[in-house]
Design goal:
By secondary structure, the chain is α/β, with parallel strands linked by helices. It has 19 helices and 14 strands. It has helices spanning 69-86, 100-104, 108-119, 128-141, 180-187, 195-209, 213-219, 229-240, 250-263, 277-294, 306-318, 323-334, 339-360, 366-377, 389-399, 407-418, 434-453, 480-484, 487-502; strands at 21-27, 31-39, 45-54, 94-98, 123-125, 149-155, 160-166, 169-176, 223-227, 248-249, 298-301, 466-470, 473-478, 506-511. The protein has a 6-stranded mixed sheet with strand order 8-7-6-9-11-10, with helices on both faces. The longest helix is centred in the C-terminal third of the chain and has 22 residues, at 339-360. The termini are far apart.
Length: 512
C-alpha cells in the first residue's frame, strides 16, 4: 500500500467525481475532523480535502456527565457545515465515528439522534480499542513502508491511545482515559501554571501508565511515532523556542516546561495558536510523562491519525477485506465454536433473510452481515456453560475488543445472540431507535428458526423450505414428507412458535 499523497482540495473537480471519494468524520473530544480522499494505486489514498473545527465537545461534559446544551450546539453547527461537503458522496462510502466524550456522556444517545439528523449519516461510537487500531493504521500508512517495530502515541481530547505494532499490524493496543481536555480541566482549569500543579498532574498520569508500561517495554520498538494536535503543537513549539530538531526530543520537552512556568498562565502561551492554547498544558503533561515512563528519546510526527485510519479501513471494507470478518472468526475460534454448525446455521439464516427481506424491510448488506456474524458466534458461550450459553455469548460479544466494530454494532450483535434461544428478552434495547429495534427483533427471529432446523447438527439442510414474512406474522412452508421424517424438528418448531407468540410474533407452520 502507498502512503498519503496529498492534503489539499483538488481544483476543478467535477461533481460526478464524488462517486469515487471516501469520506471519514472524526467527532473527537476536542476537534471535529472531516477527511475526503480518493483511493490511489496499490490501496493508498490521495487526500483532496481536510476540514477541522475546534468544537471542544469534551469541555462540555458537566458534573453529571451530560453534554451541555452549548457544546451540543457547537457540535451540531459544525456537522451542518460538514454535511454540505458530503452531499454528493454515496452514503456507503462515508464513515463517521465518535470517540471518548461520546463514550462517557450519559446523554450521548440523545445527542447522536440530533447529530445524525444534521449530518445526514449514521455516527458510530467506537471503543477505545477500535480508536487505537484506527490511529495505528493512519499513522503507519502515513509513514514510509517499513517492517520496523513502532510505538504510536495519540493524545486526544478525552483519551490517549498507545499502540505497539510492526508494519501495518498492531501488536498491542491501549486506550487511557486521560486527554488534553480532561487533564487541563482537572488540574489547570483556571489557566494558572505552577510547578506543583504540573507535578500533581504528572503523578496522575504516571498512575494511569503504571499498569501498561512494562508490557510495552517487553515488546520493544525501533521508533516512536506521535499523532494528534497536541503532539504537532509540541513539535512546532519546540522549534519555535530554539530546539532545532525535526523531531520531539527530551531537550524540547524540558525547554517547553521551563517556558510554560515562566509564562505562568495559559493565556500567556503566545507561541501556541489561540485555539490550542486552552488545552495545551494538559496534553503536554501527558506527553512529558510518556517520555519519562517509556524511556523515549525522540518522537517522530505523523500526519496520519484516526480519520486516515478510518479511510483505509473503509476502503478495505469496499474491497471485501473487512476487519470485522476476521474479528468474528478469531473470537469464534478462541471459544471453540463448531465452524461446521455455524456455517450450516449461517447459510440457512441468510436464505431466510433473503426471503423475508422485502416483507420485513431488511437491508441486504449490513443486516446480512449481522445475522451471519451472529450465526458464527451463537454458540461461543458453550465454553463457559451449556446452560444459558446464549446469555454467556452475549456478554462475551458486548465486552470483547472486536476490530472494526462500533459499540452500537457490538451491542446489536450481542442482543441477537442473547435472544437466540429460550425466552426472548429484549430488556436492553431501548437505546435503539424504534425502527432499528424492530429490525434486531426480526433478525433474531430468523436466526432462531435457522438454529431450530439444525438443533440435531445435521449436515443435510431441509429441502423446499420457505419463509414468508409480513408485519408480525411469518409463515414457514415445509415439505410434508420431510416434516414426517423429522418429527423432533417439527416438535421444536412448535415450541418455538410458543416462544415467538410470547414476544408478539405469529408463526404459522404450513406443510405442502
Amino acid at each position: 500500500m502507498t502512503n498519503i499523497t496529498g492534503t489539499t482540495r483538488m481544483a476543478g473537480e467535477s461533481q460526478s467525481d464524488n462517486s469515487e471519494y471516501v469520506a471519514t468524520i472524526d467527532l473527537g473530544s476536542n476537534s471535529f475532523h472531516m477527511l475526503i480522499a480518493v483511493e490511489g494505486e496499490e490501496g493508498g489514498i490521495r487526500i483532496v480535502d481536510r476540514v477541522r473545527e475546534m468544537v471542544r465537545l469534551g469541555a462540555g461534559i458537566q458534573h453529571d456527565r451530560t453534554l451541555s446544551k452549548e457544546s451540543q450546539q457547537r457540535a451540531l453547527k459544525c456537522l451542518g457545515r460538514f454535511r454540505e461537503r458530503l452531499s454528493a458522496i454515496p452514503p456507503y462510502r462515508i464513515r463517521a465515528v465518535g470517540t471518548n466524550t461520546l463514550r462517557v456522556a450519559r446523554n450521548s444517545g440523545e445527542f447522536l439522534a440530533k447529530a445524525e439528523r444534521v449530518l445526514g449519516h449514521p455516527i458510530s461510537i467506537i471503543s477505545g480499542h477500535e480508536e487505537a487500531r484506527l490511529v495505528y493504521l493512519g499513522a503507519a500508512f502515513g509513514l514510509a513502508v517499513s517492517s520496523r517495530k513502532r510505538l504510536v502515541i495519540d493524545i486526544g481530547g478525552g483519551s490517549t491511545e498507545i499502540i505497539a505494532g510492526q508494519g501495518y499490524r498492531p501488536l498491542r493496543l491501549d486506550s487511557l482515559y486521560i486527554g488534553c481536555v480532561s487533564m487541563t480541566r482537572r488540574f489547570f482549569d483556571d489557566g494558572k501554571i505552577t510547578k506543583n500543579r504540573i507535578e500533581s498532574a504528572g503523578q496522575f498520569v504516571r498512575r494511569e501508565l503504571e499498569t501498561i508500561v512494562n508490557k510495552y517495554l517487553q515488546l520493544g520498538w525501533d521508533e516512536v511515532v506521535g499523532t494528534s494536535g497536541t503532539i504537532r503543537a509540541v513539535d512546532k513549539l519546540s522549534r519555535d523556542i530554539g530546539i532545532k530538531k525535526d523531531w520531539i526530543s527530551h531537550a524540547g520537552i524540558e525547554a517547553i516546561r521551563n517556558w510554560m512556568l515562566e509564562s505562568r498562565t495559559s493565556k500567556a502561551l503566545s507561541l501556541i495558536s489561540e485555539q490550542r492554547r486552552p488545552v495545551f498544558v494538559g496534553g503536554f503533561v501527558i506527553l512529558s510523562e510518556l517520555f519519562g515512563g517509556f524511556g523515549i528519546t525522540r518522537i517522530e510526527v505523523s500526519d496520519g491519525a484516526l480519520r486516515e485510519g478510518a479511510a483505509y479501513d473503509l476502503i478495505d471494507r469496499l474491497h471485501d477485506e473487512d476487519a470485522r470478518v476476521t474479528a468474528v472468526r478469531e473470537l469464534a475460534s478462541f471459544f471453540g465454536s463448531d465452524p461446521n454448525q455455524a456455517g450450516r446455521v449461517g447459510k440457512l439464516a441468510e436464505s431466510f433473510l433473503n426471503q423475508a427481506r422485502q416483507g420485513w424491510e431488511l437491508q441486504e448488506d449490513f443486516d446480512r452481515k449481522l445475522i451471519f456474524w451472529a450465526a458464527q458466534l451463537h454458540e461461543i458461550g458453550v465454553g463457559i456453560s451449556y446452560s444459558h450459553h446464549h446469555l454467556h455469548g452475549a456478554y462475551i460479544i458486548e465486552n470483547s475488543d472486536l476490530d472494526g466494530f462500533s459499540r452500537q454494532a457490538q451491542r446489536m450483535l450481542a442482543l441477537i445472540v442473547g435472544n437466540s434461544r429460550q425466552k426472548l428478552r429484549f430488556n436492553d434495547i431501548e437505546w435503539l431507535p424504534p425502527k432499528n429495534a424492530l429490525k434486531i427483533k426480526r433478525l433474531t427471529v430468523i436466526l432462531r428458526l435457522a438454529i431450530t432446523f439444525f438443533r440435531g447438527r445435521s449436515a443435510v439442510p431441509p429441502d423446499e423450505t420457505r419463509l414468508v414474512a409480513e408485519g408480525n406474522s411469518l409463515t414457514l412452508i415445509m415439505d410434508s414428507q420431510w416434516s414426517q421424517s423429522h418429527p423432533l424438528t417439527v416438535f421444536d418448531l412448535q415450541t418455538e412458535k410458543e416462544y415467538l407468540a410470547a414476544a408478539g410474533f405469529n408463526l404459522v407452520l404450513e406443510y405442502r
